[in-house]
Each structure stands twice: as C-alpha cells, then as structure tokens.
Amino acid sequence: MDTEPALFSILRQGQVLVASVHTALDDSQLLRLQRDLVGRVGTDRARGIIIDVAALDVLDSFGSKTLRDIAEIARLRGALTVIVGIQPDVAQAMVELGIGTGAVATALDLEEGMAHLAAALGPAWTP
Predict the structure, then answer these.
(1) Residue 1 lies in a domain
(2) Where is the STAS domain (predicted)?
(3) Residue 127's pLDDT is what?
(4) How far is CA 6 from CA 15, 17, 23, 49, 118, in A?
(5) Which helix H or strand E contains 56, and what residues bound it?
(6) According to the model, what pLDDT value does residue 93 have?
(7) Is residue 81 part of a domain?
(8) Tally of domains within the chain
C-alpha cells in the first residue's frame, strides 16, 4: 500500500480541472504534473484549468516555465489556464529574478480563478 502523501491532485469541477500542488515538486514531478494535467484536458473535455500553487514557498525558473508550457499546451487543446495562489514572497522573488508567468492569467485564489474563467469563456461555460 502506498502511504506517501500526494504531491498534487487533479479534480474535475464541471468543465474545469483544478490542479492543487500540495508540496514543492522536483523537475521530474513537475513534468509528471504536466503530463497528467494535459492528458486530462482531452479525457475530461475540460475548457479551463486552474493550477493552485498556494502551498509553494518557492517557484524556480523551471517550475515557472513548466506552468507556462502547461498553459500553452492546454490552450492548443482548447482550454484556458489560470494560476492561483502565488504567495507574496514568491511573487516578489519571481519579479526580482525576472521569472514570470508570461501570458498565463493569474488570480489571487480559486474563487477569483473561477470568476476569470467564467468571464473568459462566456455564456457557454458551465461550472
């Protein structure tokens, strides 16, 4: 039996996939998150993705690039992505180091991320 805590979870809420990162991920774990999440876009017919990084106290350049890659791959598959929960210290460090999220939308929390997707996807969107 696997007793290790989950590093991340992906839940479906209507047409949205909510990926919550529970702890710091190494590069191979970030790539697994990417593979799993992008795969679920097609199988769950998702129109939106929210990636919750509130549990992270650091986000390096590889992590930031991986999040941008997830968003771009998802966009090419028909889903919009919003990153939520970036902690103030993490945001400040990212700015100081010149690491950003590119064109990927960000929001304060899950509620604001859902509101952003609702506005972006329009009346055809169902939560």
Answers:
(1) no
(2) 6-117
(3) 64
(4) 23, 17, 9, 19, 29
(5) none
(6) 87
(7) yes
(8) 1
